[in-house]
Write a structure and sequence with these properties.
By secondary structure, this protein is mainly β. 7% of the residues lie in helices and 55% in strands. The two termini are 35 Å apart.
C-alpha cells in the first residue's frame, strides 16, 4: 500500500480523458480541478488489484503536475504536532524559514535566519550569557531551542550550515515541549540523508568585506538500497566591522540512514561546531541612548580577548511503521557544550561632557553543560464511530548538568567614552584560571520525566478539534561551592492545550486555540534562596487566526491575534525583600501577519509583520534606573527588547532563467533595553539586496547588506548596545556536482 501511495506523488499520464471530465474541469477553479482529478485517479487505482504494475497501466501520456511548493512557502511542519502535518491543520501560528530564503539572504547564523519570523527579536545576553538569546512575543526564549523536535538548549551561536529549515511555533507550548515555551519554541530541522536518490555534492565559497572567508560542503550518497549518507561541513575565518573582533568557526555534521525494512529506519546524526571569537557587547549607553561614537569602536583589552565554544550534539532516531496508521519514533540525544570566555562589561557612567568616562569590569567564565534526552512519540490514526481521529502520545526523560564558574579580574580602570585610549591588557590583575577567590562557583542538575497525549478529532472534513495535556515531573538540585549550600526545587505540572480548526474550503483554514506553559525557578539553570521554594510561573495563550492559500496553493496569507499572559510572575515579597512571591503579571497583546510564496511565476515573496503591546501589569519589584539613579517600580513598564512594530519583507525575481535579483527590508521600532525604561534603542529600517547568475553547475551570487548604511543597534542592555552591520558586501560561488 505504501508503494502505491508514493506512486501518486509523481507525475501522471493518461491515454484517454473522457470529454465529460474535460468539460467539468474547464468549469472548475484550477485548485479544485486538481483536487477532483487526483481524487478520482486515486479511487480508481486503489480499487484495482493493488499491484503497482496495474496502477501504472492505468496511467500516462498527458502529464498533470502537482503544484510545486514555492521557494519561500512551506506547506507542512514537524513542530506543531511532533509529526509532520499540514500547517493548515495546526491551530497555532508557525513561521517556517526555508533553506532557499536563508541562501538568498546569506543568513549564516540562526539569529540572521530568525529575522524572517514575526514577533521575534535577538536580545543581548543577560548577565554575560553567551550564545543565541531570543525574545519571542515579548518573553525570553533563551532555553527554548530544539533540534529536530528534541531539546537542544546549549549556549552557543548556531551556524546554519547544517540546517534545512527553521520552524518557530508561537505561543505557550508546554503540552509538547515541557518547561519554558512561553512565547513559543525555535526548532532547527537538520539536513539528513534521503532514503533513495542519486549521489550529489555541492560546495559554497564566500568572500566579503572585512576579510570574511567562508566555505561549506554538502555531500550525499546511497551506496546501497538500505544505507545512505550525508555530510555537511563548514570553515569560516572572518574579521569584523568592529575593531578587535573576529569570528572563526569550523563545523561538521555527518549523518547516516539505515533502512532495515520498508517500515523501519534508523538515522544517526552528529553535529560538532567550534567557535573562536570575541565577547563584545558593543558601545556604552550615554544619557539613555547608545553613545554617539563610531560603530567600530572597541573599549576592551586587545590581548585579553577570549571566547572559545565547542558544541557536540549526537542524535539517534529510530522510526517504525506498524502500519500506515500507527507509527512510533524514538529519539535519543546527547549534548555536550564547553564554553570559556572573558567578559567585558560596562558599569556606571561619570558624566563630564566630552570627558565622560564609563567604568568597566572583566571576568573569566566557564560554563560546561551536558544533556541526555530520550523521547518516544507515537502517532495513531484510527476512525472513531466513523469520524477521522489521530492520537499523538509519548514520553520524555531528560537529565541536564550545568556548571558555572566566574572569577573577576582586578585593576580594570574606567575609560573615556568619546576619546578612549586603549591598553592591551588589564595586566597582572587579569583572571587567567579559576584558582584563588571566585565570584561564582555553582553546579545544578535537572531531571525530567514527562508524558503527553494529544488528540485531533475530525467532526466533519471541515471541522477539527485538537485537545490534550502533558504532565511533567521536574527536579532540580543546585550546589553552591562558595557557601557550601544546597538548594532544590521540585515541580509537578499539567500543561493543557485545546484548539478548533474550521476549513470551509480547501484554500481556507481558520482557528482558535488555548495553551498553557510553565516556568520553573530552575528553568535557566539558576536557583536562589529567593526562588527555590516557590512554584512555577504560569502562562496562557489565547489565539485566533487564519491561514489562506491562493493561486493553486502557491501563495499563503496568515494572520493571528493573540493575548499571551504570565498570570503569576515572580516578584519581590513585600514582607521580605530577600524572597520572591508569585504575585506579578505580564501580558502581550499582539497581531501578526505573514505572506509567503509566489506572487507570479518566478516572483517569490516572504513578508512578516508583528504589532506587540507588551506590559508588566503588576509587580512589587523595584529597580534603580541606570540613568536617573532613582528606585522605581516595574509595574506599568514595557519588557526589555520588545518593539511595538517589527517585520521583514524579502522578495526575489527570476528575470531570465539565468539571472535573479532579490532584496528586502528588516525593520523595528524603538525598544527599551532596561527594566525601568530609561534606556532606548532607536528604531531602524535596514535594506539588503542581492543578484545571482544561475547555471546548471554553479551559482554566482552577490549580496549587499545595509544598502543605505543605516546606523542601528541589533541588541542592547542597560549599559551597552551592539551596533549592527554597516554597508558591506559578499560574493558567493556555489558549485553543484
Amino acid at each position: 500500500m505504501k508503494k502505491i501511495t508514493q506512486c501518486f506523488k509523481a507525475e501522471f499520464k493518461f491515454k484517454r480523458i473522457p470529454m465529460t471530465v474535460l468539460i467539468a474541469l474547464a468549469g472548475m477553479p484550477p485548485q479544485a480541478a486538481a483536487e477532483e482529478t487526483e481524487g478520482k485517479q486515486q479511487d480508481k487505482a486503489l480499487s484495482a488489484t493493488g499491484d503497482v504494475q496495474v496502477v501504472q497501466q492505468m496511467l500516462p501520456e498527458i502529464r498533470v503536475n502537482a503544484a510545486k511548493e514555492s521557494s519561500y512557502k512551506a506547506d507542512t511542519s514537524t513542530t506543531g504536532l511532533k509529526f509532520e502535518a499540514p500547517l493548515r491543520d495546526i491551530p497555532q501560528s508557525i513561521n517556517v524559514v526555508k533553506e532557499e530564503l536563508i541562501r538568498s539572504q546569506n543568513a549564516f547564523n540562526l539569529g540572521d535566519a530568525l529575522r524572517n519570523v514575526s514577533g521575534l527579536t535577538i536580545a543581548a545576553g543577560e548577565g554575560g550569557r553567551t550564545g543565541d538569546s531570543i525574545t519571542l512575543r515579548g518573553f525570553a526564549a533563551h532555553s527554548d531551542t530544539y533540534q529536530d523536535g528534541a531539546k537542544e538548549n546549549g549556549q552557543y551561536f548556531r551556524d546554519t550550515f547544517f540546517m534545512e529549515r527553521v520552524e518557530v511555533l508561537k505561543g505557550s507550548s508546554s503540552v509538547l515541549f515541557g518547561r519554558g515555551a512561553t512565547g513559543g519554541i525555535i526548532n532547527t530541522v537538520t539536513k539528513k540523508p534521503a532514503s533513495q536518490g542519486d549521489p550529489f555534492a555541492s560546495a559554497d565559497f564566500t568572500y566579503g568585506a572585512f576579510d570574511f572567508k567562508r566555505a561549506t560542503a554538502d555531500v550525499g550518497m546511497a551506496p546501497t538500497e538500505n544505507i545512505s549518507f550525508r555530510l555537511n561541513a563548514l570553515y569560516q575565518d572572518a574579521d569584523s566591522y568592529r575593531n578587535f573582533n573576529f569570528t572563526n568557526r569550523w563545523g561538521i555534521a555527518p549523518s547516516v540512514r539505515f533502512d532495515f525494512t520498508p517500515d523501519t529506519n534508523l538515522v544517526l546524526h552528529l553535529l560538532h561546531q567550534h567557535e573562536d571569537s570575541v565577547f563584545d557587547y558593543g558601545v556604552p549607553i550615554y544619557q539613555g541612548r547608545p553613545a554617539d561614537v563610531s560603530i567600530k569602536r572597541f573599549y576592551g583589552f586587545g590581548e585579553d580577548r577570549l571566547q572559545k565554544i565547542d558544541a557536540t550534539i549526537a542524535t539517534a532516531t529510530l522510526t517504525h511503521y506498524f502500519s500506515s496508521d500507527f507509527t512510533v519514533r524514538n529519539t535519543f540525544r546527547y549534548g555536550n557544550y564547553d564554553r570559556r570566555y572573558r567578559t567585558h562589561l560596562f558599569g556606571a557612567v561619570t558624566e563630564a561632557g566630552a570627558d565622560s568616562t564609563v567604568a568597566r569590569t572583566q571576568a573569566l567564565r566557564d560554563s560546561p553543560q551536558e544533556n541526555f534526552f530520550n523521547q518516544t512519540d507515537f502517532s495513531f490514526n484510527k476512525p472513531i464511530l466513523g469520524f477521522n481521529n489521530t492520537l499523538y502520545f509519548g514520553t520524555e526523560i531528560g537529565w541536564e548538568d550545568f556548571t558555572f564558574r566566574s572569577k573577576n579580574s582586578t585593576g580594570v580602570g574606567s575609560i573615556s567614552i568619546f576619546n578612549p585610549v586603549l591598553t592591551s591588557t588589564v595586566g597582572t590583575g587579569r583572571a587567567n584560571d579559576f584558582s584563588g577567590t571566585l565570584a561564582t562557583n555553582r553546579s545544578i542538575t535537572l531531571q525530567t520525566v514527562a508524558g503527553y497525549v494529544l488528540n485531533q478529532f475530525e467532526i466533519t472534513p471541515q471541522l477539527k478539534l485538537l485537545g490534550g495535556t502533558r504532565y511533567d515531573v521536574l527536579e532540580a538540585k543546585q550546589m553552591d561551592r562558595l557557601t557550601n549550600t544546597e538548594l532544590s526545587n521540585k515541580v509537578n505540572e499539567f500543561s493543557p492545550r485545546a484548539g478548533i480548526v474550521w476549513q470551509p474550503a480547501s484554500w481556507q483554514s481558520h482557528y482558535f486555540s488555548y495553551g498553557k506553559s510553565f516556568n520553573p525557578s530552575a528553568e535557566t539553570f539558576n536557583l536562589s534562596a529567593a526562588t527555590a521554594g516557590i512554584d512555577p510561573e504560569q502562562n496562557q495563550n489565547f489565539e485566533m487566526g487564519t491561514k489562506l492559500d491562493f493561486f493553486n496553493n502557491r501563495l499563503s496569507l496568515t494572520g493571528a491575534i493573540f493575548r499571551l499572559e504570565k498570570t503569576n510572575a515572580r516578584t519581590t515579597n513585600p514582607n521580605d525583600p530577600l524572597l520572591n512571591v508569585l504575585a506579578g503579571e505580564q501580558r502581550t497583546d499582539g497581531i501578526e501577519f505573514g505572506l509567503a510564496g509566489e506572487l507570479l511565476p518566478n516572483w517569490n515573496l516572504s513578508a512578516v509583520y508583528a504589532y506587540l503591546d507588551a506590559e508588566i501589569i503588576k509587580s512589587n519589584t523595584m529597580a534603580v534606573g541606570t540613568i536617573s539613579g532613582i528606585s522605581q517600580s516595574l509595574q506599568g513598564k514595557k519588557p526589555i527588547n520588545v518593539p511595538d512594530h517589527s517585520g521583514t519583507v524579502w522578495t526575489s525575481y527570476r528575470i531570465t532563467p539565468q539571472w535573479e535579483i532579490a532584496g528586502g527590508v528588516f525593520f523595528a521600532s524603538s525598544r527599551y533595553a532596561d527594566n525601568v525604561n530609561e534606556v532606548t534603542l532607536p528604531g531602524y529600517a535596514r535594506v539588503d539586496a542581492s543578484v545571482s547568475y544561475i547555471h546548471k553547475h554553479f551559482t554566482l551570487q552577490g549580496n549587499v547588506f545595509n544598502l543605505f548604511d543605516e546606523k542601528y543597534y541589533q541588541s542592547g542592555q542597560a549599559r551597552s548596545a551592539l551596533p549592527g552591520v554597516p554597508l558591506t558586501g559578499q560574493v558567493s560561488l556555489r558549485l553543484r556536482f
